[in-house]
Write a structure and sequence with these properties.
The protein is of the alpha+beta class. It folds into three domains: 87 residues; 142 residues, SH3 type barrels (Roll); 134 residues, endopeptidase fold (from Nostoc punctiforme) (Alpha-Beta Complex), CATH 3.90.1720.10. It contains nine helices and 25 strands. The strands form seven sheets. It has a six-stranded antiparallel sheet. Strand 12 and strand 13 form a beta hairpin. Helix 1 packs antiparallel against helix 2 and helix 6 packs across helix 7. One of its GO terms (molecular function) is cysteine-type peptidase activity.
């Protein structure tokens, strides 16, 4: 009897191992299929997994890509897999896909839980597309096309008619690095919310040196008029280096935070993105994306060709054995100096004779790109031309 029991356990373990191997093989094939379909999952959401349920492999998950969805469904059918992949957006958001950020800085995460990695941020007034709701979380896409999950307290979902009404309201930008909006037109009254640079505010009235604003979730708040500015920087569609650098230098000493894109804390790409955003330019989210756009600056014979406002990229150049890997970006100040977020926002130099020179950055230099004069909609676009912002900015 004991021998039979051992034999039974042996075959049970073998069956389990076979199922695990089968699941692993299918998962590998699906990963390859998705890689063929989607170049960048940061801007083309697709999260799919393979499991085994009562001996039957199952493909589950979600994607926003119709071609990827069709390819996965065909694969599952041909390989005898159960198929439970959702094509997003959900029906709730297919007709009314919009949301607006309601807090000064909204953290966006890789999954629908607070312990998940923070992948980026969006600031107050930013329009987002909503694709799915899970519990108290929403899967959203930001104007730079980045996907992530946000706690429902950070956005207000809007119907198309509500967005049309929101669009008619006068808009101003908060121009200080940090500040507050108040419950009344009195700086001694209770604080209604904190604010950061470039929060986009909707004005419904003016009184006693204050703008009366309404947040997307319906709260009312009063902001000092002299702490706000109009949208001329955006509508003029003209950006010059000295203005971008002036904004960048206001961030000096601000702590580094992975995923940060606001005056509170920034990562390297979030920092350069914020400097340009103040003057109406939307850059890609990550350094590895930003390095693909703009005019390539010839630095083969040295760094004298760099100009103020150029982006300088660092990481690892491609070799016969390794792919290129861009991991860091800074903003050129001129004279081979660059300002960047590494530990904190600070200034270094590529000039070996400078006291700000660090060998690490010269060894890791990959390339430079010129943004000014190259805002053409191909990876670098004006805020006022962005399809998301067109939903909220008055015409």
């Amino acid at each position: 009897m004991k021998f039979i029991h051992i034999i039974f356990l042996f075959f049970l373990v073998m069956a389990s191992c076979t199922q695990q191997q089968q699941s692993s093989d299918i998962e590998q094939q699906i990963d390859q299929l998705i890689d063929q379909q989607i170049k960048d999952k940061r801007v083309d959401y697709c999260k799919v997994s393979v499991s085994v349920n009562e001996g039957q492999p199952a493909v589950t998950g979600a994607t926003v890509s119709k071609t990827t969805f069709d390819a996965l469904r065909t694969f599952a059918s041909e390989n005898g897999c159960d198929f439970s992949v959702d094509l997003l957006p959900e029906d709730t958001f297919s007709e009314n896909p919009w949301g607006i950020v309601t807090i000064s800085v909204c953290n966006i995460r890789s999954n629908s839980r607070h312990s998940a990695e923070m992948v980026t941020q969006a600031i107050m007034g930013t329009p987002v597309k909503v694709y799915r709701k899970a519990g108290g979380w929403y899967l959203i896409q930001t104007p730079d096309r980045y996907f992530g999950w946000v706690d429902g307290a950070g956005i207000a979902t809007k119907s198309n008619s509500e967005m049309a009404e929101w669009k008619t309201l006068k808009k101003v930008l908060y121009k200080n690095q940090y500040g507050f909006a108040y419950a009344e037109a009195d700086a001694k009254s209770n604080i209604a919310t904190d604010l950061v640079l470039d929060n986009l505010l909707s004005v419904v009235d003016e009184t006693a040196g204050f703008y009366k604003t309404v947040l997307a979730d319906g709260r009312e708040a009063f902001v000092k008029k002299d702490e706000c500015m109009g949208l001329d920087n955006w509508y003029n569609k003209n950006v010059v280096a000295k203005d971008v650098l002036a904004t960048a230098e206001k961030f000096m000493g601000v702590p580094y935070l992975w995923g940060g894109t606001s005056a509170k804390m920034v990562d390297c790409s979030g920092f350069v993105k914020s400097a340009y955003y103040n003057y109406g330019v939307i850059l890609q989210r990550d350094a590895s994306q930003q390095t693909l756009y703009g005019e390539l600056v010839d630095t083969q014979n040295g760094y004298e060709t760099l100009e103020a406002g150029d982006l300088v990229f660092f990481g690892r150049k491609a070799t016969e054995d390794q792919r290129e890997r861009v991991t860091h970006v800074g903003l050129c100040l001129g004279d081979q100096e660059f300002i960047h977020a590494s530990g904190k926002v600070r200034i270094n130099s590529l000039n070996r004779d400078s006291e700000k020179y660090t060998e690490h950055y010269e060894k890791g230099f990959v390339r430079a790109r010129r943004i000014i004069g190259n805002v053409d909609g191909d990876g670098i676009e004006w805020v006022v031309d962005n399809t998301f912002f067109k939903q909220v900015l008055p015409e």
